[in-house]
Each structure stands twice: as C-alpha cells, then as structure tokens.
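Narrative summary of target 7.
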Amino acid sequence: MGDFRNLTGEALVSTPPPPAAAPREESPPPRPRGGSFDEVGPATRWRLKNVPNVTPSLAILVTAFGCCLALVSSWIARSYAPRPAVALFFALIGGVLVFMNPFVGVLAYYTLAFMRPQETFWGLGDTRLTLLVSVSTLAATIFHFARNPDLDFLRKKQTVLILILWLFLYLSTMFGDFGSPEPKWMDYYNKMFIVYFVVLALVNTEKKLFILSWVIMLSIAYLAYWANDMYFGQGWHVVHGPGKPGATFYDENDFAMVIVMSVPFIWYLMRSARNPFVKLPLLGLLPVAAHAVMVTFSRGGFLGLAGSMLLIAFRDKNRALGGLILVGGVVFFAMFAGADYRSRIHSINTYEEDRSATGRLESWGAGTKMALHNPLFGVGLKRYMQAFPYYSTFQPRAAHNSWVQLGAESGLVALGCYGGLIVLTIASLVRVNRRMRFLPGEIREHTEILVRMFEGSLAGYLVCGFFLSMEDFEFFYVLVAMAQILDRVTEARVQEAGIVEAPEREALPRTAAA
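Modeled conformation, tokenized:
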C-alpha cells in the first residue's frame, strides 16, 4: 500500500510499507535413494567390520584364523596325497572368505555345482565339496544375519510352495508305497533348498544378480568346452557329463539341458558387454555351446535349444538381428550336424517308428497310473523304476518327463507346487517387464538384460523338461530365486520413484493417482 491523497494530490495518511519478509531457511535437499545401479537400500551389512560389538578386533580375528590355517595345512600336507592336500588347503582359505562375506560362498557353491571341477580336473569326484560349502555358507549367513534380521524376502508365495514341496518330497520317502532306501536324495534336496533360501537372503541388488549370472555362465561354458574336447580330442562319439554313472549331469540328456539353459546367459551377457575383449570371446562361446548340445545326441536338448533361441529372436528389439539369429542357427546346424545326428533329429517326426519315443509314451502312461493310484505321497522318491512293473506290462523305462516323474514319485500335491513355482516365476518376469518403463536409463538397461536371460533360460528348461526327468534340476530353482529377487528389487525401485502399481490398470505416479 502507498499513501492516500486528496484531489489536489496532498498526502492525507501515510502508511508505512510492510516489513520485508524474513528470508526462509531452506531445508537441505533430500538424499537420493535407490539411484545407483549397485544399491537398493542401505549398504550391505555382510561385512565383519560392521559387527565390532559381537566380535573381537579384526586384527586379532585374522591372526587367529591364520594360525589355525597354518596348523591345519601342515597336518593336511603330512597326512594326505598332494592333490587333496592342495584342494583342502584352498578350501580352508575359501572358508575364511565365506565367513567374511557369505555371498562368496554362494558363488563358490554354484561354481562347484555347475562346473564340476572336482570331477573334471581335480580328481575329487567322491568328495562332497558342495555340501561343505553350503554348510559353511549357511553358518556364515546365520551369523551375519542374526544381528539385523529382515525376513521380508520370505513373504512370497514361492516360499510357501517351496516349503510344501520340500515337505512332500520327504513324506514320499516315508509313506510312499515303495519307500526310498537311499537317503542321499533327500540330502541333495535339503542342500539345494537351503542354498535357495540363502540366495534369497544375500542377493538384493542388480549387481549381485549380474555377478551370480556371470559365475553360472562361465561355469557351464567350461562344460561346453569340456564336451567339445571329449568329442574332438578324446574321440567320444556320444558325450555325456563328467564323472561316473549317477553323477550330476552324467546322463547325456541332462548334460545337454544344462548347456541349453546357459545359452541365453551367454547371449545376453555378450550383448551387455561394452569391451570388445569381453564381447568377442562370449560371441565365440555360442557355437561352442551349440555344438556341445549336438555331440550329446539329445533330441530333447535340440528342441530346448531351438525353443530358447526362438524366444531370444522374438524378444529382441532389433528385428534384423533376431532374424539373423534364426538364420545363423539353421546354417550352423546344416554345416556342423553329422549324418548320425541329422538322422536322430529327423526321428522326432517319425516317433511312431522309433522305439525310444514309443517307449517314452508307454512310460508316461505308467507314471500317470502311479500318480492317480498314489495321489498324496506317490510311490516314493526315486522309486519310479521299482514301481514300474506293477503299473505296466511294458519294459521298465525312466519317465523322461519332469511332470510325470514328480507326480508319480511324490504325489499330486508336490506336482501342484512344482507347477505353481513355474507359474509364479513367469508372473514375476511379467511384472518386471511391466515396470521397466518406469526405471531410470542405466538401471532399465541392466534389468532388461537380466529378465531376458531368465526368460530364455526358463523356456529352454520347460521344453527340455517335458522330455527329460529334471524336476530336481538345481538350475531351475536358481532361476526361481533370481526371478523373485529381480521382482523384489524392481518393486523397490518403482516405489522409490513414487509409482503406484495397480493390478487392474496402468501404474501411475502417486500424484496422478491421488
């Protein structure tokens, strides 16, 4: 307001100007949350330096470990042959690293589980190294996790299904009509499911998912190289997995399946690599892996590889590149598939005349009868062959179908849980695809690489698993865990970005939804 004046312009009342507003104290800008590629929440707590209140000083602890390590190592060197001594020495060093950071134990476990160095070049196939690593990793996880427990990762439907499946696998050993005299199979499942939950607890960022993906891919890539070496160098006509009969991946069909599931990992990690010294070797791994599938002479492996590559080509945004993938696959098959392999693949179309194919149909019929006759607990875990003569007059054969085998051996409840895990995993991948457009640029790119890897690998498993008995395949349960983790991480990302997700409508920003 100014002065009030009369008609002549003289001031009548003077009103002072209002006092200037005091400067407003600006609040500090909020700290960015979830903006980096590495972290979703607070910094990882899996470090010993963060728990000084329950442990002695780090220097004392490391010194004590070093003394124990020296004593045990000298005893090993005197008591064992050099090769086991060296292996156990490094196992002890690895145990210290696992205690310091349990995620290292997860990486070591899956390296041993997929690469199988204990059978390919260590000469320690009879040892149970994966069991030792899983136990030490679990112990280290419990120690670190007990300080600040956060059980949110368990609040998923997949957790319930895994626990019910685990229970009914055990009950089938107790109450199945034919029982299970071999406890090693439940030991295998126990180890696999324990590590599954450890992975859920420890892996909580995209970066850790990438590290785990690289470890799995490189481990199986070594098996692809090993298969080609056995074929070209050792003169094997049909290549099976390393080890002796009964070992993991020993059967040529199982061996083909693990390589098929690694191909999407190789392809998408190659696509994500920017360094040509990384990209070109990964590109060279693709024909090595494809030829490794060929030398197993597995028809299920061929179908799984074809299904996985079709999905990769279909999902690629570059349609020209997708078409090139398909053309390259056909050309590679025409150039490198021998006459025997072509004849075996051609028998897929004439399965009525192929005794192996008709035998599978007969086995599926017997397995269906087992499941319907024993719907609750099945005939017993890994007792399919023993029960076969009671349900069919044909020659006993393996089920060669994951669904039939699980339903027959462990009942329809276990089969329903297995199917539910597949459905929920696909649903997790669909949700991640829906959220990707709300993610920042670099995070979106890495999320897309991860989700495409998981899609392609799951497609290969589902196709192969219809012709192979691989309901207990550990790679599948790793995929279930990794897809669940990616779902959880992307959910946190969009919440930090202020996005409201709605199941029946498009996700909207919070302000617009309000």
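Confidence is low (pLDDT under 50) at residues 1-14, 30-56, 504-514.
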